[in-house]
Design goal:
Order of helices and strands: HHHHHHHHHEEHHHHHHHHHHHHEE
Number of helices: 21
Strand content: under 5%
Distance between the termini: 79 Å
Helix content: 55-70%
Number of strands: 4
Structural class: mainly alpha
Radius of gyration: 54 Å
Number of domains: 5
Largest sheet: 2 strands, antiparallel
Length: 628
């Protein structure tokens, strides 16, 4: 097997090389097609002008248009042949035969086009030179540059002669003989003088015309010499002419070198493309549209061609057919034939390897999916056991003065270790608000059955540690949560009247733990936020409202850091500093209030703020308090 220069290339490198080589091969093929089209069309339509000048005029008949289409089809066919020919793997004799039969004409056409273009360039340079323009002007004006003074003088002499003849005829009017004779004598002399003058001018004009014709002939010859001046040839052609080579031969040699180099480049790129495709086929990488998906070695994903049908000589086992009776042969002979079988079908073996590797990957993927199903089954089993130990619903006594701990229904939180499956999603959920965090802690503590103060406190901290994404509560807050739960458990065995009495004894110092207040749990933060946003749309422009939303995080940070208070005055000051002055926006006081309401409702929804239990809708108590 011949060495392939792409043997050591990776899959990505092979694909990159294929794109570059294919692009270069197409570009040089298109250039060859255009050169051949110009040459063949120029000769078939029979024009003396460059083909682009002839197209600009486009005063062609049906025959010339027909030849145009024939020329384009002819050039396309030959270039399509060369495009595929250079990618074929032929021996030297076959390549030489095809080269002389089919490639010779494209080269001849392209060389001819190159020479024609060189001649057009030389002719254009010659005719645009100053010397040529001056000489062309002299030739053009040669017919009108004769001595116009001689012509006008001759015309005047003839006019004098005609006048004298008229006067001679008028001499008969005299009745006196002497007077009449004198008149005739004078006019006869005038006629003779005018005739002599005209003949003299005629002789001078003939001599001038002869000289002018001679000059015109000389100027015309010089004009032709300037038009065909080789001094306007390209410098590289002039270099060869300086060594004694005829200009036409030098032009042919230059064109041959250029076109020959292009053909060599086409042949080289075609050979590279052939080797590249052979290597890609050997690896099972797709080089055509007949593709199937496959995952290959080293974790590289790509598409490969569909493997050949497993029948006939194309099947991989066909190469190993003689090995059917290998049991009767020696080990050495068996190994030799096995190696020959591998060499006889390298591409098929590589394809089968890719197929086997793909099947192996599929088995691993199926095994992983099966393992995931087992994990889900284990989750379900553990959850079932957990449900057996902890009931889904926990009932608490409900009284007229109920607190946050007294729920009709508290959802159960399973303390199940995560294996796989849906339980993993619990650790990907967004962070809970303060309210939801306290609710889940209370539910977990009550589900644990802890009764003593120490057990309840430990259960609170355990529940908080087991939560996937709780609100950031400090140890002091957790201890206060436990303190609120302890008397509730003790009151669970007492009468409803005793519970109400103990609840009424709570002081205002408990307001900092807002989740224990009934308002905090009955308050619908989501609904409040939607109503605030709807109300603001009629009071604040859409652009300003959008920018106001962007200031929420800054306002929240200022509130949490206690740099600003939850008062209307402080809120307006913040809006004025950051929106009106900072962004040069104009907003009414009513709009400021609407924006502040949105911020507060959103903070309450996120658990940053909690509803004030003392809020009545009137001063001095604010609607919200800071959660922690």
């Amino acid at each position: 097997m011949k060495n392939n220069q792409f043997d050591n290339y990776s899959h990505d490198e092979l694909e990159a090389q294929r794109r570059v080589i294919t692009a270069g091969y197409l570009i040089i093929t298109i250039a060859s097609f255009l050169a051949m089209t110009f040459f063949v069309t120029h000769n078939m339509i029979g024009t003396s002008k460059p083909i682009w000048d002839a197209v600009n005029g486009l005063n062609w008949g049906f025959g010339q248009l027909a030849y145009l289409f024939i020329s384009v089809g002819f050039a396309f066919g030959f270039n399509a042949f060369t495009y595929f020919f250079y990618q074929m793997e032929l021996n030297a004799k076959q390549r030489a035969f095809v080269l002389f039969v089919a490639i010779a004409f494209p080269m001849f056409a392209e060389i001819g086009q190159s020479m024609t273009r060189a001649e057009d360039t030389r002719h254009e340079a010659a005719t645009n030179s100053e010397a040529f323009k001056i000489m062309a002007g002299r030739v053009k004006n040669a017919g009108v540059t004769s001595d116009t003074g001689i012509s006008s003088a001759m015309a005047a002499a003839m006019a004098e002669k005609a006048k004298a003849q008229t006067e001679l005829a008028a001499c008969s009017r005299y009745t006196v003989e002497a007077r009449r004779q004198r008149c005739e004598r004078i006019e006869t002399g005038n006629i003779a003088a005018a005739q002599a003058k005209a003949e003299g001018f005629q002789m001078a004009g003939s001599a001038s015309l002869t000289a002018s014709s001679s000059q015109l002939k000389q100027d015309t010859g010089m004009l032709k010499e300037l038009e065909a001046d080789d001094g306007f040839l390209q410098p590289i052609v002039l270099l060869l002419v300086s060594f004694g080579m005829p200009a036409i031969v030098a032009s042919f040699l230059i064109a041959f070198i250029i076109i020959g180099s292009m053909e060599v480049a086409m042949a080289y790129l075609g050979g590279l493309l052939r080797q590249l495709k052979d290597r890609m086929r050997a690896l099972g990488i797709a080089v055509s549209s007949n593709k199937i998906k496959a995952r290959y070695v080293d974790g590289v994903s790509y598409t490969r061609e569909a493997p050949p049908a497993l029948s006939g000589e194309s099947a991989p086992m066909a190469a190993f057919a003689p090995l059917a009776d290998s049991a009767k042969q020696g080990v050495a002979e068996f190994a030799k034939k096995f190696e020959q079988g591998l060499k006889s079908a390298p591409e098929i073996v590589a394809t089968e390897y890719a197929r086997a590797d793909y099947a192996n990957k599929q088995v691993l993927a199926d095994a992983a999916a099966f393992a995931g199903k087992i994990g889900n089954k284990l989750d379900d089993a553990l959850n079932a056991e957990n449900r057996k130990n902890y009931p889904q619903k926990i009932q608490f006594p409900v009284g007229e003065g109920k607190t946050a701990e007294d729920y009709d229904l508290i959802p159960r939180t399973d303390k199940t270790p995560t294996l796989s499956g849906e339980n993993t999603l619990a650790y990907l959920t967004p962070r809970l608000s303060v309210t939801d965090t306290v609710k889940q802690i209370q539910a977990s503590v009550k589900a644990s059955g802890a009764s003593s103060p120490e057990a309840i406190t430990a259960a609170v901290f355990d529940a908080f540690a087991a939560m996937p994404n709780p609100a950031p509560l400090s140890d002091a807050i957790l201890e206060r949560v436990a303190g609120k739960i302890i008397p509730t458990n003790e009151r669970a065995h007492s009468s409803n009247e005793q519970i109400i009495g103990e609840r009424n004894e709570r002081t205002a110092s408990d307001d900092t733990l807002i989740p224990t207040n009934e308002r905090a749990h009955s308050f619908d933060a989501e609904k409040e936020l939607l109503e605030a946003m709807k109300d603001a749309q009629g009071k604040v422009d859409a652009d300003i409202l959008k920018e106001g939303y962007g200031l929420y995080e800054q306002w929240k940070a200022a509130i949490v850091a206690r740099e600003a208070k939850l008062t209307t005055r402080d809120g307006r000051s913040f809006v004025n500093a950051h929106l009106c002055q900072g962004k040069k926006r104009t907003i009414t006081p009513e709009g400021m209030n609407a924006l502040i309401v949105i911020w507060q409702a959103r903070a309450a929804k996120e658990g940053v703020l909690l509803l004030n239990p003392k809020y009545t809708g009137k001063p001095p108590f604010p609607k919200y308090l800071l959660a922690a």
